[in-house]
């Protein structure tokens, strides 16, 4: 497949292009994610997760969680849990997450992850971001490993990610 990455990304420079429909942004994101370094994808995704033009971080993580397979869910939870202390875990969902996940357990299994609701993940992600803003970078890097999952955040957020990916690539050249 021959395609012009530079031309494709050019339409996203400067932010979301109102002429690009969400389905087109999803297709473009797929193409770009397969043809740029993973670090570039991570940078774009992180900026979309931080953007004031997208839903709050906790809401987007929850949305991605609900579209993930059990292994991805466990990975997401392990990243979130590594960024918060036990006090945060015990405060989420009235302590239910602390009880379910065994209070200081090292790793969440896919089976345990399937017992966590998207609402609990949203609450956990929001508190994790408040306690440790660097979690947004870590989650952006995690999602860069699973680019097809990112369609769950929607075309507008993907267009923002593509815009940041385009800027990053432009700055390198």
Describe this structure in words.
It is a single chain. The protein contains 11 helices and no strands. The protein has 173 residues and is an all-alpha fold. The chain has one domain. The two termini are 24 Å apart. The model has no long low-confidence stretch (mean pLDDT 85).
Concise account of the structure shown:
With 173 residues, the protein is an all-alpha fold. Helix content is 64%, strand content 0%.
Instruction: Please tally the β strands and state the result.
Output: 0
Number of helices: 11
Mean pLDDT: 85
Cα distance, first to last residue? 24 Å
Portion of residues in beta strands equals: under 5%
* Radius of gyration (Å): 17 Å
pLDDT under 50 segments (min length 5)? none
How many distinct domains?
Answer: 1
Largest sheet geometry: none
Identify the overall geometry.
elongated
- The sequence of SSEs as H and E is HHHHHHHHHHH
Q: Structural class per helix/strand content?
A: mainly alpha
């Amino acid at each position: 497949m021959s395609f012009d990455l530079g031309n494709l990304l050019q339409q996203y420079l400067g932010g979301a292009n109102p002429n690009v429909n969400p389905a087109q942004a999803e297709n473009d994101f797929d193409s770009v994610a397969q043809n740029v370094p993973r670090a570039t994808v991570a940078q774009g995704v992180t900026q979309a997760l931080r953007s004031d033009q997208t839903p709050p971080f906790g809401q987007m993580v929850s949305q991605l969680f609900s579209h993930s397979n059990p292994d991805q869910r466990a990975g997401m939870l392990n990243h979130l849990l590594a960024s918060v202390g036990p006090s945060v875990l015990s405060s989420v969902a009235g302590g239910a997450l602390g009880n379910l996940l065994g209070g200081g357990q090292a790793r969440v299994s896919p089976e345990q992850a399937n017992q966590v609701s998207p609402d609990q993940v949203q609450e956990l992600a929001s508190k994790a971001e408040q306690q440790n803003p660097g979690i947004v970078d870590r989650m952006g890097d995690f999602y860069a490993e699973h680019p097809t999952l990112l369609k769950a955040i929607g075309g507008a957020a993907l267009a923002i990610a593509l815009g940041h990916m385009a800027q990053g690539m432009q700055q390198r050249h």
